[in-house]
Structures are given as C-alpha cells and as structure tokens.
C-alpha cells in the first residue's frame, strides 16, 4: 500500500501532478495565497526533483509524501492526498509510515499557518511549532519539528 515511487518515470510524475494540483489549490484557498509553486510544477520538474517519494497506492495513487534526508534530519517537502480521498486516513498513514521507518531521525516540516488540518495532523504526531515566517505579504507558514 505504501511504497517508494519513482518520480523520474513519466507516468508516475503525471500521477503525482494529477493529485498535487487540486490538493495544493485547496491549500491555496485556506492560505489566501495562490502562488504555491507546486500548483504550476511541470511533469519535467517533478521528474527532476531530488526528493524521495513514498506513495499510497491501491488501485491508483491516492496520496504521497516526499522528503529529503539531510544528515540526521528528514525534511518533509510534500504531503499530498487526492482531494477525493480526504478524511480517509491516508495522510496519517503516510506520515506514520515515514516516522516508523526512521525512528532515529529528527523531522521538520512547514505548512501554511492557516492550514488547520495539516497543523493538527503534525501536532497529533508530536511535532512542535518552531517558527512562523512570512512567504508573501500577509501570508505565513509555520515550521514544525519532531525530535526523537
């Protein structure tokens, strides 16, 4: 169900893009900020990403998490669920899987300060708010950290 996916393959990159765009549009609405880079990311840009991607797949890709490992810290870059699959526990499963398989690591993640569902999810795993920073006039993101 959850396994590493290869974003360098065109079909996988298309699957990522097909759920990423609508999901980030919803976050953009929550934040009141419509210039989230992943909304306009091309297939080629996804293929060239240096992030590691884990996908939640049943009959199709329903969600994914991506990250970069930097020493003892895993920086979560994306957590995306197909909007048609919201509230099915997919995001929780993806985060839980990543944490379970990297128990010795620290984790950081940033999300829109106004994205209450994402904030609540990370906090439920024990992530603590570390800092808030402005990404555009009047628009903030919050960074969370989980130290093991």
From TrEMBL:
What molecular functions are annotated in GO for this chain? Answer: acyltransferase activity, transferring groups other than amino-acyl groups
Alphabetized SUPFAM superfamilies for the sequence: Acyl-CoA N-acyltransferases (Nat)
The UniProt record lists the N-acetyltransferase domain at 11-148
Stored Pfam families? Acetyltransf_1 (PF00583)
Record keyword Transferase present: yes
Please indicate which superkingdom the organism of origin belongs to. Bacteria
Per UniProt, the keywords (alphabetical) are: Transferase
The signal peptide stretch is none
Q: What InterPro entries does the database record attribute to this sequence?
A: Acyl_CoA_acyltransferase, GNAT_dom
- PROSITE patterns recorded for this chain? GNAT
Give the protein name, as stated in the record. Answer: Acetyltransferase (GNAT) family protein
- Provenance organism: Planococcus citreus
């Amino acid at each position: 169900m959850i396994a590493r996916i290869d974003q360098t393959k065109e079909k996988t990159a298309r699957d990522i893009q097909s759920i990423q765009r609508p999901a980030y549009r919803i976050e953009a609405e929550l934040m009141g900020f419509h210039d989230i880079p992943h909304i306009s990311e091309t297939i080629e840009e996804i293929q060239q990403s240096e992030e590691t991607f884990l996908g939640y797949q049943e009959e199709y890709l329903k969600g994914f998490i991506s990250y970069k490992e930097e020493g003892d810290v895993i920086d979560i870059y994306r957590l995306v669920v197909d909007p048609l699959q919201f509230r099915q526990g997919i995001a929780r499963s993806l985060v839980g899987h990543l944490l379970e398989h990297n128990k010795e690591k620290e984790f950081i993640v940033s999300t829109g300060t106004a994205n209450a569902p994402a904030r609540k999810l990370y906090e439920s795993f024990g992530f603590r708010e570390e800092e808030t920073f402005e990404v555009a006039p009047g628009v903030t993101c919050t960074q969370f950290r989980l130290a093991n």
